[in-house]
Amino acid sequence: MVDALDLLKILTEFGAVIISSLWLYLMIKHRKALPYSIGKLGDILMWGLVLIWIGFLVNFANEFVPRLTTSVKAIKVSKTADDVFIILGASLVTYYLYQVFEKKMPKVTPMQVPIDMGSSKLSPGAYLISSNVPLEDVVKFLKEKSMLAITRRPQDYEKLGIPYIWLTKTEGENTIYPTNLTKLLHTMVTHANGNTAFILDGLEYLILENGFESVMKFLSSARDYMITKGSILITFVGEKTLDDHQLAVLKRELKELEII
Prior knowledge:
single chain, alpha/beta, Rossmann fold
């Protein structure tokens, strides 16, 4: 019975090494899809995963250490090392998760811009508009709404007095990392209500950083939340920046909008 239990213990520890190796491989392979995957936080995440993997590896190796040495001190060190590696790695991963998911959202709120022109008659939902349409025309069209921009061009919205979230890899006030679509969606949903309009001016950049499929999932979820919350999302798109298939998928999910 003892031998069987010992064998089971070795197999489970070997299984932990295999699974953690696969886990580490997949995390590295798909690193760009993770929030804050590039830069300092990304390095912290990767080091955390590597340390956890080393911990499982050492834990497996500990099954054979007593057979290689009779030194009590060496055996104690080896049996302590696996816990140290796993604790350090788990601490780094926990720090990463805290920074990504618990860090405060951008301190920005939608604001109504006083412009005496036009009127928005749109029903709640998500809309596409050509990037050739002047930003000023969109703002005039939404004059009765409290607006919040999600953009790669913060200076354009700052001139118009429109609150914005800057899509950037540079950390700062009112910024969101472009691959953190979860946090971006959460921020939008938090501010969404019956008098709010969001302007997404950075679609191509999000696609570049996340891939078309991930961005479409984000937009589909955002559209559903806009309808539920009674809000509006207007997304600028440069038609020549997407292929025909991508544009067709985009137009199936979001209604086309023309401002006359």
